[in-house]
Amino acid sequence: MEIFDSHSHLDDARFDDDRDEIVIRAKENGVKYILNPGATLASSVKAVKIAEKYDIVYAAVGIHPHDVKDMDENTIAVLKSLCKRDKVVAYGEIGLDYYYNHSSKELQRKWFKRQIELAKELKLPIIVHDRDAHGEVFDILKEYKVWEDGCVMHCYSGSVELAKEYVKKGIYISLAGPLTFKNAKKTQAVAKEIPLEWLMAETDAPYLTPVPFRGKRNEPSYTKYIVEAIAKAKEIDLEKTAMKLTANTKKFLGLI
Ligand code: NI
């Protein structure tokens, strides 16, 4: 099988003791590629280092909405220089999180826009985090025509209707572990209704562990459970689903 884990925080400290084993186990479970997004400046630097160490890992850099309160134009300059490294293939994760509001809404909007501008300048696709800010996120994505360089809604948890609106604009939808939960009817409907060519699979490890490992630490080798859930929702062959999801992710990242 050929699987792409399109979003995995391999840089997380919870992987510091066994990162080598995690990567080996991923390979043993069909994972051919992993994208490690950044969340803070330190985690972006660490993601790039990890991508440079492991052949199957690629990196994205960026500041998560939780942490934008600490950023300034110096941060942008450092991120920009990191983007020049060979294994940095995307920008993110960036967006708005109005559930936790760890940074003020005003600062979240300001730095979301500023980081989209940087990604556009560098012609990098973006990875978007949206929690309880659907309308504003979509407005900003439209304002910047982000589909020109590529955009994915990571760990999508919204409605089928909104997913269709994104896809109409050329924005990808990435599905994570919650798709495997019994009560995830809404996300299962998204997996069923959205054309396969616009979907990606991710673990968002170490968070959001899929069934049958729910409650434990998540890791890239579990991506197959998300791929299986997509194949099941669409009633199509598992191998074929995995291949197409991987092809989509490679296309999005400009790896083909
Ligand atoms: Ni994430």
Please explain how this structure is put together:
The protein is built from nine helices and eight strands. It has 256 residues and is of the alpha/beta class. It has one domain: Metal-dependent hydrolases (TIM Barrel). It has an eight-stranded parallel beta sheet. Helix 2 (41-53) packs parallel to helix 3 (73-82). The longest helix has 18 residues, at 105-122. The mean pLDDT is 97.
Per-chain topology:
Elements: E1 3-5, H1 19-28, E2 31-36, H2 41-53, E3 57-61, H3 73-82, E4 88-97, H4 105-122, E5 126-131, H5 134-143, E6 151-153, H6 160-169, E7 172-175, H7 185-193, E8 199-201, H8 223-234, H9 238-253
Parallel strand pairs: 1-2, 2-3, 3-4, 4-5, 5-6, 6-7, 7-8
Helix pairs in contact: 2-3, 7-8, 8-9
Nickel (II) ion binds near residues 9, 37, 93 and 204.
Chain-averaged pLDDT: 97
- The Cα radius of gyration reads 17 Å
CATH superfamily, by name, is Metal-dependent hydrolases
- What class do helices, strands and sheet pairing give? alpha/beta
Q: Total number of β-strand segments?
A: 8
From N to C, what is the helix and strand string? EHEHEHEHEHEHEHEHH
| Shape estimate | globular
The tally of structural domains comes to 1
> Which percent bin holds the helix content?
40-55%
Low-confidence stretches: none
At CATH level 2, the architecture is: Alpha-Beta Barrel
The main sheet comes to: 8 strands, parallel
